[in-house]
Amino acid sequence: MLQDARPVTVPRLERLFEAGNLPAGVFCLKAGSIRIGIVADSGHERTIDVVLPGGTFGEASIFKSSEAPVYAQALIQSDLLCISNETILTGIQQWPEMATVFLELACTRINQLLAGMYVCCLRNAHQRVNDFLLKNAQPVGGSRIQGIVSLLVSKSVVASSLNLTPETFSRELHSLSDQGLIKVERALIHVYDLEKLRRQGIA
Predict the structure, then answer these.
(1) Which residues form the HTH crp-type domain (predicted)?
(2) What DSSP state is assigned to residue 57?
């Protein structure tokens, strides 16, 4: 199938497709970053996911030809491969086990959406930011207490993915910084006490 894949380059901030369009197939990101988002009638936007190199999206269009409920936008110039739905369906007919792969991808998407609903409906702003830091913190050396979070996208995109305004996200980071729990340095967030963040997230 890869020999039939079509290379696509999307300039920074341009959209690969809009909500309401029919996706051309399944996309695999080689380089860059792609925001998957939705727009409300009010114009308010929400980031559903940020796809990083090696990630895929558009799998739902394989089995159901319908308008996409989301848009896909390049946060930086991005290089992708597009495999048409026809090519994939032909491959599934020849190798039925391929269907399992795409069903697993679909299940992963569903679980991500359910997790996002839980965060937005049942967690307050403080808990959402704590959850984000705990989920993305990488240990420093052999420490179980300290970690570091590398922001691969802008703070405004992170805020949108947490269903927060950029101002609220920044305010929560400042609060944690004032408590001595974190230190923000451009795209790096140093976390000094992961255990205390966990306790705050439960409270």
Answers:
(1) 123-195
(2) E
Task: Return the CATH number of 2-122, one of 3.30.450.20, 3.40.50.300, 1.10.10.60, 2.60.120.10.
Answer: 2.60.120.10
pLDDT digits (tens, 9 = 90+) for 180-192: 999 999 999 999 9
β-partners of residue 45 are 39
Tell me how far CA of residue 24 lies from CA of 4, 6, 59, 146, in angstroms: 13, 10, 11, 44
Query: How many other CB atoms are there within 10 angstroms of residue 49's CB atom?
Result: 18
pLDDT in tens, 83-139: 998 898 898 898 888 888 888 888 888 888 888 888 888 899 999 999 999 999 998
- Containing H/E element for 26? strand 25-39
Backbone angles phi, psi at 8, to 5 degrees: -135, 135
- pTM for the model stands at 0.81
The alpha-helical segments, DSSP class H, found in 59-165 are 60-63, 85-94, 97-122, 125-136, 155-161
CA distance 78 to 94: 31
> What burial letters (b/e) apply to 68-96, b meaning 16+ CB within 10 Å?
bebbbbbbeebebbbbbbebbeebbeeee
Q: Which of 118, 120, 146, 114 shows the shortest CA–CA distance to 133?
A: 146
